Amino acid sequence: MSATIARSWVASANDPDSDFPLQNLPYGVFSVGGHAPRCGAAIGDMILDLAAAEAAGAIEAQGTFARPFMNDFIALGRDTWASTRARLTELLAEDGGNRDLPLVPMADATLHLPIRVTEFTDFYASKNHAFNVGVLFRGPENALPPQWTHMPIGYNGRASSVVVSGTDIIRPMGQLKGEDGPIWSPTRRLDLELELGAIVGADSAMGTRVSVEEAEEMIFGYVLLNDWSARDVQAWEYQPLGPFQSKALGTTISPWIVTVAALEPFRREGAPRDNPLLPYLQEQRPGFFDLQLGWSMNGQMMARTNYNVMYYSSAQQLAHHTESGCPMRVGDLLGTGTISGPSRDQTGALLEMTMGGKEPVTVNGETRTFIQDGDTIALHGHAQGAGYRIGFGPCTGTILPARE
Amino acid sequence: MSATIARSWVASANDPDSDFPLQNLPYGVFSVGGHAPRCGAAIGDMILDLAAAEAAGAIEAQGTFARPFMNDFIALGRDTWASTRARLTELLAEDGGNRDLPLVPMADATLHLPIRVTEFTDFYASKNHAFNVGVLFRGPENALPPQWTHMPIGYNGRASSVVVSGTDIIRPMGQLKGEDGPIWSPTRRLDLELELGAIVGADSAMGTRVSVEEAEEMIFGYVLLNDWSARDVQAWEYQPLGPFQSKALGTTISPWIVTVAALEPFRREGAPRDNPLLPYLQEQRPGFFDLQLGWSMNGQMMARTNYNVMYYSSAQQLAHHTESGCPMRVGDLLGTGTISGPSRDQTGALLEMTMGGKEPVTVNGETRTFIQDGDTIALHGHAQGAGYRIGFGPCTGTILPARE
């Protein structure tokens, strides 16, 4: 890709610190003024109104951009994903672009969930995180479950509780283990989980297994994902059927879906393998990306890590998801699991960072073990190119007091 | 309700062994001939075509009966549920009914999933089942998890794998624990789970908890539910995040939703409590029904039990589901968990009946520990009234060989 093509006539997109240069073109859903939510593409500090662009004849997407979610566009398939990206690149390029396109300042727009989340599955694919959390929940001998290096462990989450960045999160009430039986209390150990979410872009039929290669082709793109967790509720409820209400208080995703096409130049290997995988999980090419990730609390950066520390890719997770013949559908959201590097300042959750609350951290001069009411957590993520970055935009949430 | 009102001009509905007398009027989705699927009500051996009845002006449901799922009708709310039931009773009554209504022989119709399943949650509310399975998975000391008598444990299942009665189920492949690491194999321990499924009939807002009383009012009706399970896959995968692919091969539900209104005369207490519940789970009135349940393999009855052996009602499960503020939506399906009585001939799963495969059973002269290819499992359920029964109709599935 030449430097010329990579520049846009939307000047702000050419700022090397912009999350949304011409190379990115992530998709989302926005509303502005009295208009109903519709699909858009981020470019610099502007949003290209894709529904209006189609109405004006600049692009063609069978009317799907007028919907308040991206699912129907995504369902048009890979060829349409590619041709639309090529067309948008052409229209927004500095040379030869169409300067009459309908743009809206992002600052004026309300951003909505980019997809109607069909189902939500959350995985557990950072070995550092799985080990650290396992030590805290079960002790060092049983920290890493025996099947962990053989399969991407995951559980079904709750799609209805997925919200877009900026949505306040109410501290949940829950059952906590007490001295003499359970007590009813606001969670005292509210945590974040720094993750990516893969957006499934094609259906698979019941009874059919999807290979890792096919799974690669089924993934439309990625968002940042914060799987808010109530650790005390989790500890009391999670055996033997897994986390349930501890993970249903809210899951925040970033409003822009960064496409696999935009991430392709950053494709990388993940963590080294401890043992060979069964054939159905073996990948033919690297399934990770060099994505610089991190999270902040009340504006202070707390940890930085990289997606390439992970052990299982989203494609491997998707393939495993169909092991039983389970059908997958457009709009399914697959959380990668918490992304943690080996050191404390690389951890994607406070549970790990504070050693289960035993070693507090300092945030703007205040002490924290877990998240307090009024705290704001922001996730950060981008791939760094030569003179540009492929960014995800914001993924934030502020905690409101419990409704007791 | 007088005996006169309870008789229908549809003669087959007056057979005391019919699952679908005038007192029942369950809802489903059917197609016949070249027509697209639409909503219907079962009466005797006929289906009342509700879409055609509305088109003819006999009933009024804002056009929702023309849809290929019941969700939109259900979303109209409790007052509409009640007025529609009253109107259908009037129209189908022997005295004063409307004999011009559009009826279709059930034998000619294809039955579809009655709802578009929004999300699927499965619980674990039979103490007998939880104890029996716990012994097999973890030994008698750790059989019943410590929180079990304090909360209705559940996990999110996979809505996309819910199918209607009569759909063949393909034996899944999966990772099984081997001598030297996992092996890739068709499951060798394929099981059923005899359950009911509650259909959620109203939304709840994120951050809002639903009381048990409110939850009672949110439940539209019930279906039979068979949560097919691959026990060897489950044993290897399920710690610490719960069952995943072992439960995603298919979940079969009966095609007719029996309404709470039809079950009301059979309301009963459940199992006695070991300890008081936290206030948010306390019920003001009995939450169970006197439902005679059972299952058969290849035509031979294997076990009989009753819904009133359960420890937590669907209303308590729904209330617990919102403990964290998790939003519920119309079309959510809540499995009760396997319904097992205390004795072996009352167990709702082969895992329990055969003591983990150690004590085979005889089926039509053949030996079984788990389900073989070609076997057909049918669930059965009804409430017995005086001279009539409120039945669920069939809930069957036949196992096809694995696709290796």
UniProtKB/TrEMBL annotation, chains A, B:
Provide the residue positions that the database annotates as binding Mg(2+): D227, K247, T251
Q: Which residues form the active site?
A: H129 (proton acceptor)
Any one of the GO BP annotations: L-phenylalanine catabolic process
Which residues participate in substrate binding? Y124, R138, Q234, Y238, T338
Keywords from the UniProt entry: Calcium, Hydrolase, Magnesium, Metal-binding, Phenylalanine catabolism, Tyrosine catabolism
* Enzyme Commission number(s) of this protein: 3.7.1.2
- Signal peptide start and end residues: none
Its UniProt pathway annotation is: Amino-acid degradation; L-phenylalanine degradation; acetoacetate and fumarate from L-phenylalanine: step 6/6
Q: Which cofactor does it need?
A: Ca(2+); Mg(2+)
Residues annotated as coiled-coil are none
Domain named Fumarylacetoacetase-like C-terminal: which ranges? 120-397
Q: Which Gene3D superfamilies match?
A: Fumarylacetoacetase, N-terminal domain, Fumarylacetoacetase-like, C-terminal domain
Q: Which residues bind Ca(2+)?
A: D122, E193, E195, D227
Q: Name one GO molecular function term.
A: metal ion binding
- Which InterPro entries does the protein's record reference? Fumarylacetoacetase, Fumarylacetoacetase-like_C, Fumarylacetoacetase_C_sf, Fumarylacetoacetase_N, Fumarylacetoacetase_N_sf
Which Pfam families does the annotation name?
Answer: FAA_hydrolase, FAA_hydrolase_N
Where in this chain does the record put each Fumarylacetoacetase N-terminal domain? 23-114
Q: Does the keyword tRNA processing apply?
A: no
Source species, domain of life: Bacteria
**Annotated protein name in UniProt:** fumarylacetoacetase
Supply the source organism for this entry.
Paracoccus contaminans
